[in-house]
Amino acid sequence: MPEQAAAQTRLVYFADPMCSWCYGFSPVIAGLAERFEDRLPLDVVMGGLRAGNTEPMGAKDKEFIRNAWTRVGAATGQPFDMDFFDREGFIYDTEPACRAVVTARRLMPRMALPFMARIQQAFYAENRDMTAADEIAGVAEEAGFDRAEFGAAFGSAQAHNETFRDFLTAQSLGIHGFPTLIAGSEERGYALLTNGYRPFEELADPLERWLAAGAPVTKA
Q1: Structurally, how many domains does the chain consist of?
Q2: Which domain range does residue 169 map to?
Q3: Domain of residue 31, CATH code
Q4: What is the model's pTM?
Q5: How large is the average pLDDT for residues 147-163?
Q6: Residues 172, 206: Cα–Cα separation, whole Å
Q7: Residue 5 pLDDT
């Protein structure tokens, strides 16, 4: 990373598009990105919640996930299409959705966050299969990407490798729960803002105070 970029104070958001609490957090992170855009550029890093999962969902999985979605909907107001649970044999592999966001980031960096929100809406609110390459390409086209270009980039070795590097970055920092938001720089270190869902008002004002205090970071 260039020295200037390494020294720049920024937000780093670790998330997975198929993590329901990240979906609940979507309006919050969008609001923070807009409010702090000129002072804290945002990096989006994929966490890989269930990346590479190969087991079809069973009855216990459905019960667990349904309860989670119910809690997220109650806490955040985000809509869910519960017809999802009528699916049989669905494999909840989050790698393709993560790779879709990485692909958007590679093609148009500023689209990474809004495209993740679109993937989340398609999966949670529209009951579309965000593990299927064709369906993902369709959502990308709706979001303004060239379908063929996106599809080629999505299937490329570069996208696969960059997605895996995102997962390794999260793991190397000990980040296993999502959403996680940190602020700081490579040069000075990072401060944890939240590990888990918090509403906008509980993050925006503390961030303002943190910046006003000179963005202090306590290194381990």
Answers
A1: 1
A2: 17-175
A3: 3.40.30.10
A4: 0.94
A5: 98
A6: 27
A7: 53
